[in-house]
Amino acid sequence: MPEFVTFSRNVFLPVTNMCRNRCEYCGFRREPNDPDAQLMCVEDIISVLVKGKEAGCTEALFTFGEYADEVPGYKERLKEFGYSTTMEYLVELCNIAIGIGLLPHTNVGALTKSELEILKPLNASMGLMLETTARLRVHRNCPGKDPALRLKTIREAGELKIPFTTGILVGIGESVGDRIDSLQAIASIHEEYGHIQEVIIQNFTPKPNTPMADHVPPTQDEMIQVVRLASKILPSDVAIQVAPNLIDPYILIQCGVSDLGGISPTTIDWINPEAEWPSVSELQKIVREIPLCERLPIYPQYVQKGWYSENLKELIKTLSDENGYRKTLSV
Question: Do the domain assignments include residue 326?
Fold first, then answer.
């Protein structure tokens, strides 16, 4: 058993659910003419950020559909807010979050190096799920799910020394060999750049009204196998994470999991809205005798190395303790 497992407290901001990809398992994406298609305005985002800050959160998780700028009708909505590109809007939102006292963590899909350079000073960490190195049928209408493109983004984030989150999605048609290849690809990049702070081992969960609605999700035994593979393949300084609202993590902790990701006291999991976040007290019950340790969206080793910008320096110093973990809450 590990000495402890880590987690963070966040607010989940699904800024837009319009996306250029059409993943066959995704229940998040919406067409622009869909009544549920959204682009959150600044006022609504500020409201969510303030409530999260008051609830003790440290992380503002900004998610977008990938390159929504390419989706017909999206830019017209964005221009109504006074912005010409998603990147311009995202920079503004990150600055707002920092001003309120939350550390941005952005996950907007595959990005160019120049886009990563723009976002680096405004983000404590960033993320992009690799999902798989395999070319699968479920990604046939997904230009952003080209494995080479996603690996390029992860590698360039390393060149820029951005603390980074990635992961694989288990049960979408990939083989055991594909899972091994994916983990080895992540390990190889980290060994070169040292920037991957965590790898998520996420179990596919079927969503209604999607082509994979009737697809069987991975079993607990499959997840145990993948976590054990990850613990053998990944370098020891990379945390292995599972989502405690999608799977019982207790047995997986015994197999190598050391982190339980972000949970939110104020927002739902917009990617898996049917799966409620546990509270911190509920999370402690789930992991039984294993202590919990709260972290920031930037992992302790990167806090101590100073892998953050001047924009974030004072906020990180305020929120972190001498070891780089979350400072004990006084509320």
Answer: no
CATH code assigned at 263: 3.20.20.70
CA distance 177 to 275: 29
What predicted TM-score, i.e. pTM, was given to this entire model? 0.96
Count: domains in the chain:
1
The whole-angstrom separation of Cα 81 and Cα 316 is: 30
pLDDT at 331 over 80: no
Lowest mean pLDDT among 33-37, 149-153, 206-210, 226-230: 33-37
Task: Please give the single-letter amino acid code of residue 258.
Answer: S
pLDDT in tens, 235-292: 999 999 999 999 999 999 999 999 999 999 999 999 999 999 999 999 999 999 999 9
Residues of the domain holding 182: 5-319
Q: Is 61 exposed, middle or buried (0-12, 13-18, 19+ CB in 10 A)?
A: buried
Kindly list the distances between the CA atom of residue 219 and the CA atoms of 171, 201, 226, 271, in Å, as whole numbers in the listed order: 9, 13, 11, 20
Tokens of 223: 């997840």
Q: DSSP labels for 257-288?
A: --EEEEE-SSS--SSSTTSPPPPHHHHHHHTT
Instruction: Outline where 11-85 has alpha helix (H).
Output: 42-54, 74-80
Find out whether 58 and 102 touch, Cβ atoms under 8 Å. yes
Helix (H/G/I), strand (E/B), else coil: 7 = strand
C-beta separation of 69 from 111 below 8 A: no
> C-alpha distances in angstroms, 249 versus 201, 244, 263, 286, 311?
11, 6, 14, 8, 35
Q: What is the CA radius of gyration of the chain?
A: 19
Q: What pLDDT was estimated at residue 33?
A: 86
At 329, is the pLDDT very low, low, confident or very high (cuts 50, 70, 90)? Answer: low
